[in-house]
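Table S2 (text version). Query chain:
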Amino acid sequence: MGLGAGGFIPVLHAATTSRPDESDTLIAAEAVTGALRDLGFATRIIALGRDLAELEALQAARPLLVFNLVDAVDGDGRLAPFVPARLDALGLPYTGAGTSAWLETLSKIATKLRLAHAGLPTPDWSADGTGLDPLLPVIVKPVWEHGSLGLDEASVMGGAAAAQAIVERNLRLRTQHFAESFIDGREFNLALLEGPGGVNVLPIAEIVFEGFGSEAAKIVGYEAKWAPDSEAYIGTPRRFGLEADEPELALRLAGLAQGCWVLFGLSSYARVDFRVDPAGEPFILEVNVNPCLSPDAGFAAAAQEAGLSYADMIGQIVEGSLGALQATA
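Corresponding structure-token output:
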């Protein structure tokens, strides 16, 4: 792989144990430190508090690289960009997206505006639930939260109900929501991993909806992602093989994912989520600059499908981050 042994690479997180998605970050932190040790690096986990004071002490340790797993601070995803911003100010290199990419993808509405202005396909949306076809289905989503937080079967509804649902969910869940046209079709996740020759699209995963009734909304909600014993989790396995079975669709999705990489100035690794309608038209749902790296998550599964062990995947993230650093030096 070309990585030399040695060097200190601390692993950062700011997760709590209050939610399953937060606890999964703790699992990822343990797994990443184990892989870094296997690769010959010195490492330790650093848990950040809300004031990020731990970053100031980190500067004196002169790390080779900082492995940034922070996707929320004290459970608030809106605070995540403060970590790369502070690392930039301290002159500390890190894995994952830079501050500007974080800021441009943090809000789903802002992301969709950039996509639409660039001519990349994304479902129609409304910030307050008005203006969409009242007779067609929509999905009401949180603006700021990722990891399917706040999504369940009741999130899909007729367009006429969207405005009231946004008001109700804003009050009940204490976070901003918006409405998006619901694409009742197939769902795909594309993992992107930066290598010496640029960004590579790993094997494409399709989320298969099994055992859903004809009236059930086919979505990957919070339970489907974070509750392994739930029917939603069991009924949404991932499947690979699109490149062989439908090469034209695979190429189209890969091209759009790479377009997102360029548009948002992504780096190191990322994931782009799609829905494909019954006519075969793809729509970009979300650009995730810091996808989960726990061993049982989709990113690691895509890497394994590409022939990379978990340690190989972490090593390539490190190598790509160091390579990008050297290229800009």
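Notes on Table S2: The mean pLDDT is 91. The radius of gyration is 20 Å.
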